[in-house]
UniProtKB/TrEMBL annotation:
Belongs to the universal ribosomal protein uS8 family. HAMAP family: Ribosomal_uS8_B. Coiled coil: none annotated. Pfam families: Ribosomal_S8. It comes from Eggerthella lenta. The gene is rpsH. The lineage of its organism: Bacteria, Bacillati, Actinomycetota, Coriobacteriia, Eggerthellales. It comes from the Bacteria. This is Small ribosomal subunit protein uS8. One of its GO terms (cellular component) is ribonucleoprotein complex.
């Protein structure tokens, strides 16, 4: 069975594994999911990610990051643009998550990037998710 929204599935798996205190979480891989995982690693929300080649399809494995005494690095993840309602933002309307403390992941014509990078490059796009 095909999945309607693999990005929402990925974010839900990360959210659930983070709240359960799991060290890693795995899911079916795609180019866009790998890009989202790369951004999450660059912003310091996850420790790392690996693409494991498999027979039916590749698997994306994300290693979650915790602070002292199992303090969670990811406080919240929210899917913004959904298949039923796409949310786009121009270069001047890019959102700021928690006044700049969080990160908005934006899919632009120059690739998937954070809201800060999109502002620097002067491009807008589809607002995929908020993470804080």
């Amino acid at each position: 069975m095909t999945m309607t929204d693999p990005i929402a599935d990925m974010l839900t798996r990360v959210r659930n594994a983070n709240s359960a205190g799991k060290p890693t979480v795995s899911m079916p891989s795609s180019k866009k999911l790998v890009e989202i995982a790369r951004i999450m690693q660059e912003e310091g929300y996850v420790q790392g990610y690996d693409v494991i080649e498999g027979e039916p399809r590749a698997t994306l494995e994300i290693t979650l990051k915790y602070g002292d005494k199992k303090a969670k690095t990811i406080r919240g993840i929210k899917r913004i643009s959904k298949p039923g309602l796409r949310i786009y933002a121009g270069k001047d309307e890019l959102p700021r998550v928690l006044g700049g403390l969080g990160t908005a992941i934006v899919s632009t014509s120059n690739g998937v990037m954070t809201d800060r990078d999109a502002r620097k490059k002067g491009v807008g796009g589809e607002v995929i998710a908020y993470i804080w």
